[in-house]
Amino acid sequence: MTNLDWHAERGCVPAMALLERAPESEGIDLKAVRLYRQARVRSEMKARGIGALILSDPINIRYASGTRNMQVFSMRNAPSRYLLLTADRSILFEFTGCLHLAAGFETVDEVRPASTASFVAAGPHIAERERKWAAEMADLITELTGKDSTVGLERLNAGTAIALNAHGLQIVDAQEPVEMARAIKSSEEVKCVRASLRATEIAVGALRESIRPGITETELWSVLHRSVIEQNGDYCETRLLSAGARTNPWFQEAAHSVILENDLVALDTDVVGCHGYYSDFSRTFHAGPGQPTQAQKTLYKTAYEQVHHNMDILKAGVSFRDYADRAWNIPEKYYNNRYYLSAHGCGMTGEYPYLYHHRDFLNAGYDGLIEAGMTLCVESYIGEDAGDQGVKLEQQILITEQGVELLSRFPFEDELLTA
């Protein structure tokens, strides 16, 4: 592949072309990815009698159109950009001054400036702004789909939804059709997932090499983040890196805490990486300089056993309930601190389905079928209640017609697995 001079060409090549000619895009038909995803959403809309979707979650906008713009900003400042999708029309309402960013996307028929109906933009005039927005959107939807259309909404102000409903449109939640669409990946999508994982594995490798007593958790976390950005990934969705006593319980985010000699260092990547696809695997390392203790090895080998047992029972056609019934039985001393899921869907973020532990299924679980084309993350956290350390492991896999394909390839720690 010819190296691209980003600086020389930035003034004459559309942003989309620059992205598609980036190294991690080689061998991927990104146009096919975008068209497949949009067709998936439209198919799920049709199955539910939904005439139009108004998507404001920037991840779902990217899924349904391929466009990306200030993703984290847009999550906080919704609706600063949004996508109106019908059976045969795709209109992107883009943030002020950014309309040019959607140029060349075959999944966008028209780009219009967004009318920002948020309190920070409208202040005390918010209700008036919401009513105006709703009137204009209702007129457009009626023009495109006819009267009394069913409209799927997500992540909009309550006042906006109420105002839209007053125009005679039936409002439903957009989550179900979008989540069900995202659940099944095409072969080209899986290439995007692999590209994102390979970049994240490079970043985790750099992090692993940087582990030493005396470094802080935040310094170590920055190694991962820097490498992800250098490789054209988007961002880290969480800061789940902790060491020593802060590994138990789980979900303690990276802090200005010094890693000590022979601490365990646990990490969950949670990287929104290349092409916006989620790289989600977990590893636990030993800081040295000595050898891991038997207690550390026991935690590690127990987590390893849980992940691999559950990977072995996953296959197309298995129900969520059957999976829960056959999943690894968590020993009582680790149960209170268990990870809240046994496995979960993974695409552009963590997504449908959630697969629960056997004992949690009655209160939290729901049934469904594991299908070929799903990408799943198999989870384990092992740490005793009130224990002084814990281990987090996780693998990302693809469900195929033949079985399971391992997607995350970063190695486990031999020194923690030995007897």
Tell me what the CATH architecture of the largest domain is: Alpha-Beta Complex
- Say which CATH homologous superfamily of the largest domain is assigned: Creatinase/methionine aminopeptidase superfamily
Strand content: 15-25%
The CATH class of the largest domain is Alpha Beta
Query: What percent of the residues sit in helical stretches (DSSP H or I)?
Result: 25-40%
Low-confidence stretches: 1-13
Number of helices: 16
CATH topology of the largest domain: Creatine Amidinohydrolase
Topology, number of strands:
17
Write a structural description.
This protein is α+β, with helices and mostly antiparallel strands. It is globular. The protein has helices at residues 6-9, 15-20, 30-47, 58-65, 71-76, 119-122, 126-145, 158-165, 175-182, 187-210, 217-230, 294-313, 320-326, 332-335, 361-364, 414-417; strands at residues 52-55, 82-86, 90-94, 110-113, 150-153, 170-173, 235-236, 241-243, 264-268, 271-272, 278-279, 282-286, 343-346, 350-355, 375-382, 391-399, 404-406. A hairpin with an 8-residue loop joins strand 15 and strand 16. It starts with 5 loop residues before the first helix and ends with a helix. The longest helix is centred in the middle third of the chain and has 24 residues, at 187-210. It folds into two domains: 6-182, Creatine Amidinohydrolase, Chain A, domain 1 (3-Layer(aba) Sandwich), CATH 3.40.350.10; 187-417, Alpha-Beta Complex (Creatine Amidinohydrolase). It has a six-stranded mixed β-sheet with strand order 4-3-2-1-5-6.
